[in-house]
Each structure stands twice: as structure tokens, then as C-alpha cells.
Write a structure and sequence with these properties.
Length: 218
């Protein structure tokens, strides 16, 4: 199992006290599976994704990535797991502005210790970015920047791709193209995909779907 999340609980402290967001959420993701996570705004989708990506820790419950538990690991070990096991795409593209397209991809691959130039060339070609590798992020459209962000997330060929509203800033046609590219690339690399989306239309293209409601999987 690529992701095995069990009985996750998470509350946030606010001025009004502790507010529960996740109250016993479990999910699994196997190789080659594509899973859509839907739910109303504020239902805890990003929180759940952050726990799975080892960007935050649950109050209770366990996340296993590729069979290894994140519980009890140091921040450094968690960061290492994240770099090697997970590719992340967010609604904001978060590219490094001072690096070119090619450098953004290579930087990520190097961080994970897996720089494979032939793969990066192929990835760039499949994402339709071959003519833009020397451009800086600010010289690209939103759709192009998101394609670079997808390339960066897959640069080290991680077993898991986690995408949080990756098409939230794009128009419908561009969103469709970007999702099609994500699906094509995860099929090619054999990665599992967990995609957070508000869109029923996009969720319908994935193999499975989970809906979060009031802290539970509905
Ligand atoms: N760091 C934080 N401190 C306090 N409350 C938080 C924090 N992060 C998130 N929350 C609250 O937790 C709830 C779930 O937030 P989360 O971002 O996970 O929801 P979401 O389903 O991803 O929402 P959206 O679809 O709007 O992005 C919200 O009520 C939010 O206000």
C-alpha cells in the first residue's frame, strides 16, 4: 500500500478553543490508483493532505507511507520521506522564481537524490514545455506554470502524487488539459494519485472517490 492512513484525528486551537477538523478518518491508496477527495470548503481536505504529506502531524492515528509509519519520526526524517516518496502540487504553483523551468525540475530531482536527465527531458516534452525550458516562471501563463509544477512534482518519479486543487486557478479548458496530463503521467510512472478537488466533473475522471463531511469520510 502506498498510503495507509488510519483513524486520523486533528483539531486546531482557536480563540474559541479546540475545534475538531478530522474525527477518525481512514484511507488507503495503492499503486496505480487515482483517488479524488471532495468535500465542502472547510471540511478538512487540505488538513488531511498535509498529514499524509508529513507536513503536519495528527493528534491521533497513524499515516504509513510505502509501509513506513510517520509516527515517531523526527522532522528531518519526515522531510526526507516527503522528498523521496511524495510529489506535491498546490493551487498556488510555488515555483522558485529565480530558477528557469529546467532548473526548477532539476532542483527538485536533486533534492530527492534522483537526477535523471533523460526522464526530465521526456517529462518536459510530455508537458509541452520543451520550447520554454530557459524561461522563468514569471514569463509563463498560469496553465504553463502549473504544468511546470506538475513536472517538478514528478521530477524524482515519486510513488505518490498529492495534488491540492491543482486546477483551482485555471479556466475550465486549461483545467481539463492539466488533469489529463496528470493522469497520463501517473499512469506512465505507476504512481498513485490523491487529488483534492471541488469539481465533481474532475473527480469523476478518477478511479475512486471519497467525500469528507463533518470530520468523517461520508
Ligand atoms: N492552522 C490552522 N489553525 C486553525 N484552524 C485551521 C488551521 N488550518 C485549517 N484550519 C481550519 O480547519 C478547517 C479545515 O480546513 P482545511 O483547509 O483542511 O479545509 P478544506 O476542506 O481544504 O477547505 P477548502 O476547500 O476551502 O480549501 C477550517 O475550518 C479551517 O478554518
Amino acid at each position: 500500500m502506498l498510503i495507509d492512513a488510519r483513524d486520523l484525528h486533528k483539531s486546531y486551537m482557536t480563540a474559541e478553543g479546540s475545534v475538531p477538523v478530522l474525527s477518525g478518518v481512514s484511507l488507503t491508496l495503492g499503486a496505480g490508483e487515482t483517488l479524488a477527495l471532495t468535500g465542502e470548503s472547510g471540511s478538512g481536505k487540505s488538513t488531511l493532505l498535509h498529514l499524509i504529506a508529513a507536513l503536519d502531524q495528527p493528534d491521533r492515528g497513524e499515516v504509513r507511507l510505502g509501509g513506513t509509519s510517520l509516527t515517531g519520526q523526527t522532522d528531518r526524517q519526515r522531510a526526507e520521506m516527503r522528498r523521496k516518496s511524495v510529489g506535491l502540487v498546490f493551487q498556488q504553483f510555488n515555483l522558485v522564481p529565480s530558477l528557469t523551468v529546467a532548473q526548477n525540475l532539476a532542483f527538485q530531482a536533486r533534492l530527492a537524490g534522483r537526477l535523471d536527465s533523460a526522464w526530465l527531458d521526456r517529462l518536459t516534452g510530455q508537458l509541452g514545455l520543451s520550447g520554454m525550458t530557459d524561461r522563468y516562471p514569471e514569463q509563463l501563463s498560469g496553465g504553463q506554470q502549473q504544468r511546470v509544477a506538475i513536472g517538478r512534482a514528478l521530477a524524482a518519479r515519486p510513488p505518490v502524487l498529492l495534488a491540492d486543487e491543482p486546477t483551482g486557478n485555471l479556466d475550465e479548458a486549461t483545467a481539463d488539459t492539466v488533469l489529463a496530463l496528470i493522469l497520463e503521467l501517473v499512469t506512465e510512472t505507476g504512481a498513485g494519485l490523491l487529488l483534492v478537488t471541488h469539481s465533481d466533473r474532475l473527480a469523476g475522471r478518477l478511479s475512486r472517490r471519497l467525500h469528507l463531511r463533518q470530520g468523517h469520510i461520508a
